[in-house]
């Protein structure tokens, strides 16, 4: 039984590590697509829109990727062995963190699928990006959850705060 639990934990750790690495890889690839190139593409298509402030959604996508890539290791830092006596607070916080990770991944995928090239739908796309950016900012606050999880360990820890 103990071996089964250890194997399950190890598989979960490997899964989370690969998810975190996938987000870092995506972040690296997507960072090559800059805000300037997106604006020049829109200018080239003569979209008629000259207010590009909403295109900061691309930066929100990068933040979401970064937050996700770092959140997976944080999940394992809470240490199940410290809560053998059934502290339900730890489990509740882990579930909350997992829920926020899943929501952020969903928003992340939605942002990737926004078709910036369709100039006839530009106003709809603009509103979609703005809404997804606000949601991303909210979900990136999962660091509050991580900080609470780590706080349960009775040891000193430092985590970089999230600033939008």
UniProtKB/TrEMBL annotation:
Residues 1-26 are annotated as: Disordered. This is Putative zinc finger protein. InterPro entries: Ariadne (IPR045840). Residues 1-18 have a biased composition (Basic and acidic residues). It comes from Cupressus sempervirens. Residues 12-164 form the Ariadne domain. It comes from the Eukaryota.
């Amino acid at each position: 039984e103990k071996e089964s639990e250890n194997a399950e934990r190890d598989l979960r750790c490997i899964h989370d590590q690969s998810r975190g690495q996938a987000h870092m890889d995506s972040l690296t690839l997507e960072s090559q697509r800059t805000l300037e190139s997106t604006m020049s593409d829109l200018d080239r298509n003569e979209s008629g829109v000259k207010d590009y402030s909403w295109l900061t959604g691309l930066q929100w996508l990068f933040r979401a990727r970064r937050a996700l890539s770092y959140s997976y290791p944080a999940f394992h830092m809470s240490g199940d062995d410290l809560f053998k006596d059934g502290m339900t607070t730890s489990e509740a916080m882990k579930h909350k963190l997992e829920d926020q990770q899943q929501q952020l991944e969903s928003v992340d995928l939605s942002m990737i699928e926004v078709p910036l090239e369709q100039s006839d739908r530009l106003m709809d796309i603009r509103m979609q990006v703005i809404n997804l950016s606000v949601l991303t900012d909210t979900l990136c606050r999962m660091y509050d959850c991580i900080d609470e999880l780590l706080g349960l360990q009775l040891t000193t820890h430092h985590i970089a705060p999230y600033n939008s």
